[in-house]
TrEMBL record:
<feature type="domain" description="HTH marR-type">
    <location>
        <begin position="19"/>
        <end position="159"/>
    </location>
</feature>
<keyword id="KW-0804">Transcription</keyword>
<keyword id="KW-0805">Transcription regulation</keyword>
<dbReference type="InterPro" id="IPR036388">
    <property type="entry name" value="WH-like_DNA-bd_sf"/>
</dbReference>
<dbReference type="Pfam" id="PF12802">
    <property type="entry name" value="MarR_2"/>
</dbReference>
<dbReference type="InterPro" id="IPR000835">
    <property type="entry name" value="HTH_MarR-typ"/>
</dbReference>
<dbReference type="InterPro" id="IPR023187">
    <property type="entry name" value="Tscrpt_reg_MarR-type_CS"/>
</dbReference>
<keyword id="KW-0238">DNA-binding</keyword>
<dbReference type="InterPro" id="IPR036390">
    <property type="entry name" value="WH_DNA-bd_sf"/>
</dbReference>
<protein>
    <submittedName>
        <fullName>MarR family transcriptional regulator</fullName>
    </submittedName>
</protein>
Length: 178
């Protein structure tokens, strides 16, 4: 019974339904996509056997490495929006599991950077591989006009949502990979 409530809540819009049948179908599809994304995120987290904060930190470190950026513990504090004590514990757990190494700062002997190991990269990639491969598979199966139409709809929804939440701040930050 509780799971039924959760399922129905995720299928519910807290606004008027779209006016047309096809509009309602699109709305239902977007809600189903969100449910599938959330379910995958839960499965990915579970597959890593890491806590939420640890896995988030590891994803950020892997993404920073892809972007050829070096992150310090202070950067991770800002990115996770948590305390230095919490980040210290997260880093220790990741180091102890062989997912992160500390590398000395080239000019400041007191400072260091956090670098994900190859095992960390493989863990993050394996956690998301099937999910991302499924998305790419569907996109690659679409014709050019279908892809363009889908992109336009999604971009329009994002622009509308951004007017509510304020501008996205993804231009110079490390964002999680979905």
């Amino acid at each position: 019974m509780p799971q039924t409530v959760v399922l129905h809540e995720r299928q519910h819009l807290y606004a008027a339904q779209p006016k047309t049948d096809i509009g309602r179908r699109l709305s239902d599809a977007l809600l189903a996509l969100r449910r599938a994304e959330n379910a995958h995120a839960d499965r990915a987290l579970h597959s890593t056997r890491l806590g939420t904060l640890d896995f988030t930190a590891l994803r950020y470190l892997v993404q920073a490495q892809r972007d050829e950026r070096m992150l310090s513990p202070k950067d991770v504090i800002v990115m996770l929006n948590t305390s230095s004590a919490t980040v210290t514990n997260v880093i220790e757990r990741l180091v102890n599991r062989g997912y992160v190494t500390r590398v000395s700062h080239p000019r400041d002997r007191r400072a260091h950077y956090l670098v994900p190991t190859q095992a960390a990269v493989e863990l993050v990639e394996s956690a998301y591989h099937d999910h991302h491969a499924a998305i790419v598979n569907v996109i690659d199966s679409l014709g050019e006009s279908e892809s363009a139409a889908a992109a336009e709809v999604i971009e329009a929804i994002v622009r509308q949502l951004d007017t509510i939440a304020g501008p996205r701040q993804d231009t110079d930050t490390v964002a999680p990979q979905l």
